[in-house]
Design goal:
3-stranded antiparallel beta sheet; alpha+beta; Deoxyuridine 5'-Triphosphate Nucleotidohydrolase, Chain A; 37% helix; rod-shaped; 300 residues; 4 helices
Length: 300
């Protein structure tokens, strides 16, 4: 953009000061300062955006959402997620005379969409450049704003007479204060503005998704572990019972052998021999079972 001329310091119509101090400009006066004065009050000027006592400002080509640059054009609207904040700018460039202020705000229709405007209400005399401001999406759904959406409204009010050398002038551009109409939108987002509610809700959503994925897996693992523990407990119970039966077998075999041992017979005959053999077999079997159960328990 070519360099803008300095703000108008004196109204070309000196007679208007008699009755217009503090007056809100109506449409004819806004049109006068936009079309017949250099520099124009606002450019580009569109007749359809002129209202009885205000002018409509539209969404510009650049915005920042969550610290990221968003370029806006006819095919690419600005999308502001629910509970997120965007830094936007007007498409129009304003040059306010030193004897006039602007008062701008979000258009009422945009408020009912769920947008919250947090800009500075007053535009100072002598301001040159586009107007930036943060917009919050307070609704529970994404809001889409096309390029040149009629977002803002501004009215203009005359001040008392400005006299050079007596009244303060809005700071002029310099090495540390570049022209605002040439500033990228990132300049207004040096702190990388983020929305706390949006970040918190995003973290909750991420945690919820993680739970949805992890919980079934952990439940499956827990179910498998419980089934394994139940199976091992059952096996332990069976081993315990088998161990007890083996010990009982040893006792029964020992009791069966006692009469033969007490009799002192070198050779057992008849029924005693059969009983002794069965007792020894039971004793051997019981010993084997005891060894197996003990070995199984040690492996656990």
């Amino acid at each position: 953009m070519s360099e803008l001329p300095p703000p108008l310091e004196q109204d070309p119509r000196g007679d208007v000061w008699a009755n217009w101090l503090g007056a809100v400009l109506l449409d004819d006066e806004i049109r006068f300062y936009c079309k017949r004065v250099d520099p124009a009050l606002t450019a580009p000027f569109k007749e359809e955006d002129l209202k009885p006592a205000r002018y409509v400002l539209t969404l510009g080509r650049e915005a920042r959402v969550g610290g990221e640059v968003k370029n806006i054009d006819a095919a690419t609207p600005l999308r502001i997620p629910a509970h997120q904040v965007a830094i936007v700018r007007t498409d129009e460039v304003l040059v306010l005379p030193r004897f006039m202020i602007g008062r701008w705000n979000l258009a009422v229709g945009e408020v009912y969409k769920g947008l919250l405007w947090t800009g500075a209400l007053q535009v100072d005399p002598g301001w040159r450049g586009y107007l930036p401001c943060p917009l919050y999406n307070l609704s529970d759904k994404e809001i889409e704003l096309p390029y040149q959406e009629r977002l803002f409204t501004i009215d203009f009010v005359r001040t008392t007479r400005w006299v050079k050398g007596i009244n303060q002038a809005y700071p002029t551009p310099g090495p540390d204060r570049p022209e605002r109409y040439n500033l990228p939108i990132a300049k207004w987002d040096e702190h990388r503005l983020h929305s706390g509610p949006y970040e918190a809700l995003a973290n909750i959503k991420l945690l919820s998704e993680k739970v949805e994925i992890e919980l079934p897996r952990q439940m499956t693992e827990l179910r498998s572990e419980v089934q394994k523990e139940i199976s091992e407990a059952r096996q332990l119970a069976v081993n315990g019972i088998t161990f007890l039966l083996a010990i009982l077998g040893v006792l029964v075999a020992a009791i069966a052998l006692l009469p033969s041992i007490n009799a002192g017979a070198p050779f057992l005959k008849g029924k005693d021999a059969i009983v002794a053999v069965l007792a020894l077999l039971a004793l051997a079997l019981s010993g084997g079972v005891i060894w197996y159960v003990w070995a199984t328990i040690k492996k656990r």
